[in-house]
Write a structure and sequence with these properties.
- The chain is α+β, with helices and mostly antiparallel strands.
- It has a two-stranded antiparallel sheet with strand order 1-2. Strands 3-4 form a two-stranded antiparallel sheet.
- The mean pLDDT is 90.
Length: 112
């Protein structure tokens, strides 16, 4: 009867490897959920013969997260080649606050 690979993963690096793999999976899931694009987690287990009949086992975890789209800014060019947040060709309106008159609201009596 063979042992579960999960048992072996728990022993690699004293349990640190399986924790890193779990964190990597959660990181990729969040990125895929945020972007709607695919990602992946690759676990690699290297095994080599060590001394006295033992095996040296090393685990590595790599992550391929989808990239989030870059945030754009809408800026307006000037003849000098500068960029502004407001359109230099747009006329400015002379806007000012309007005073608000206080209104008293009276409850209406219901009639049957």
């Amino acid at each position: 009867m063979s042992r579960s690979i999960i048992d072996t993963l728990r022993h690699i690096a004293g349990g640190v490897f399986i924790d890193e793999a779990s964190d990597a999976l959660a990181e990729v899931v969040r990125a895929v959920d945020a972007t709607g694009k695919a990602g992946s987690v690759t676990l690699k287990i290297d095994i080599r013969r060590a001394t006295a009949g033992a095996m040296a086992v090393r685990g590595t975890c790599s992550v391929k997260k989808p990239s989030e789209p870059a945030i754009e800014a809408l800026l307006f060019p000037t003849p000098d080649g500068n960029l502004l947040t407001e359109d230099p060709n747009q006329k400015k309106l002379d806007l000012r606050p309007v005073g608000v008159e206080k209104v008293e609201i009276k409850p209406v009596e219901a009639t049957a």
